[in-house]
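User: New here, any thoughts?
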Amino acid sequence: MALLAECFAVAIHAYAVMSNHLHLVVQLEPTLVRQWADAEVAARWIRLFPPREGTPAAHERKRDALMADPSRMSAARARLGDLSWLMRCLAEPIARAANAEDDCKGRFWEGRYKAQVLCDDRAVLAAMAYVDLNPIRAGMANDLAQSHHTSAHVRLRGVSHDATKAMLQPVAGSSVTCLPIRLGEYLALLEWTGKQVRPGKRGSIALSAPSVLAKFDARPDRWVARVKSIGSGYWRAVGEVQDLLEIAQRLGLRWLKGVGIAAKLA
């Protein structure tokens, strides 16, 4: 994921690697990839698909050949800003490595990835919380410090008093402002939300909700329901009722899964 974030025009806001699946909250930056010079596009593409020889001379030959072919350059540029290619470059090397270990063929993951459009800041924040809290929701960890292989764990490792005052940034990829929330506020919101979603546990919702939550949801109990609904309550998009209806119309559908939940949470 770190390599892909360095090569693609993306920002990774949250991730969780579980035992049989993973989650990503990704922001595509299509305008950024159009600004790159051909040499940068070629360099990024060759990092993803290096020549078999692996020598500096082989890298240079492959770069020159790519830059000399306008159609290939155009395709490479488009792919470096494409979600499907990002997921392909994530899944395929894992499958190849696993197949080599087990001496078998086929996919590593059960099926194709599923994607949801996050329509506003509240949807992004809820999705990030859902992803970062996956190990806690699954009963695999009791708190954020034990939630290994998540973006929350990475943020906690490098946290300092000064860092908590800074605005929340992506954990990898392009440097874009993630949300109007500080790192310390996000971690506090995560810790509190984690206490509400732990299996068999109930938190004192009304009394202990972090003050930053008021920026995104007036009712703490509704926020917890919003986070829990990210995984299975929505389908192609997460947002308000009008957002989902507009997306459905563009897709030629009458409605999308999640409209009912969005209405209840309005």
